[in-house]
Specification:
Blueprint: E1 6-8, H1 14-21, E2 31-35, H2 36-42, H3 45-52, E3 56-63, H4 67-79, E4 84-88, H5 93-106, E5 115-119, H6 127-134, H7 140-153, E6 158-160, H8 166-172, E7 178-181, H9 200-205, E8 210-213, H10 215-218, H11 223-234
Parallel strand pairs: 1-2, 1-8, 2-3, 3-4, 4-5, 5-6, 6-7, 7-8
The structure holds cytidine-5'-monophosphate (C5P).
Cytidine-5'-monophosphate (C5P) binds at residues 8, 10, 35, 123, 160, 182-183, 192, 194, 212-215.
Family: Belongs to the OMP decarboxylase family. Type 1 subfamily.
Pfam families: OMPdecase (PF00215)
GO biological process, one term: 'de novo' pyrimidine nucleobase biosynthetic process
């Protein structure tokens, strides 16, 4: 089946999203990522509107709290009909298990339970910061792999990670353990503030299971064409 890049809808209002999506044909069903900025301003209605139009939603809220609270929050998120959501692996195996339970309990009968993935170390965290702020003394990569293994042990479906980490995470878990990778730029595109980037074709070759692409599509003069081009590269069609 054709794989879709996940479009990061990093806009600050529903109106801006509508204007952006109006540039796509209505029959093109997208997989979009909604983050905290938008969700906290617009609330669940933004998810309802996108799913009502037939789009799949990855709700990127990175939950991290005591297991009971995360479980109940996840139960609510499952009712929104999202396709994927996430937690911080730093919340621990027990919290991640509770998150999965909440999602399962909140999913209506006959519907698929949303994929649940974990954030390992944020890519904004440097190795030095991790040593100093979190008192984790192992190398950053080791911490990332450890968190991925914890997520797998808790029954999660995968992790968000840098494309450069996919191989070691798949080696430590399994090839179908989702590695969803941001930091993707088609050849020749503006890099923006991303530091370690990969193009869609490279991401496919190293085994990324999903790619997240924001600005190369959202800031494009011709978003639909940019989307189709990235989708082609991601599917290895050129
Ligand atoms: O515009 P761009 O393609 O850089 O957007 C990437 C998206 O992925 C943004 O929503 C960003 O917050 C998110 N992200 C990231 N790096 C991470 C985790 C999430 O770029 N490690």
């Amino acid at each position: 089946m054709e794989k879709r890049p996940v479009i990061a809808l990093d806009f600050s209002s529903k109106e801006a999203i509508k204007t952006f999506l109006a540039q796509f044909p209505a029959e093109e069903k997208l997989f979009v990522k909604i983050g905290m900025e938008l969700f906290y301003q617009e609330g669940p209605s933004i998810v309802h509107e996108l799913t009502a139009d037939g789009h799949d939603v990855f709700l990127d809220l990175k939950l991290h709290d005591i297991p009971n609270t995360v479980k109940k929050a996840m139960k609510g998120l499952a009712k929104l009909g999202v396709r994927m959501t996430n937690v911080h692996a730093a919340g621990g195996v027990e919290m991640m298990k509770a998150a999965k339970e909440g999602l399962t309990e909140g999913t209506a009968e006959g519907k698929a339970v949303p994929d649940l993935i974990a954030v390992t170390q944020l890519t904004s965290t440097s190795e030095e910061q991790m040593h100093r702020d979190q008192l984790i003394q192992v190398p950053l990569k080791e911490s990332v792999v450890h968190y991925a293994k914890c997520a797998q042990e808790a029954g999660l479906d995968g992790v968000v990670c840098s494309a450069l980490e996919v191989e070691m995470i798949h080696n430590a878990t399994s090839d179908d353990f989702i590695c969803l990778t941001p930091g993707i730029r088609p050849k020749g595109a503006s890099v923006g503030d991303q530091k370690r980037i990969m193009d869609p074709q490279q991401a496919r070759k190293i085994g990324s299971n999903y790619i997240v692409v924001g600005r190369p599509i959202t800031q494009s003069e011709t978003p639909y064409e940019s989307y189709l081009q990235i989708k082609k590269e991601w599917n290895g069609e050129e």
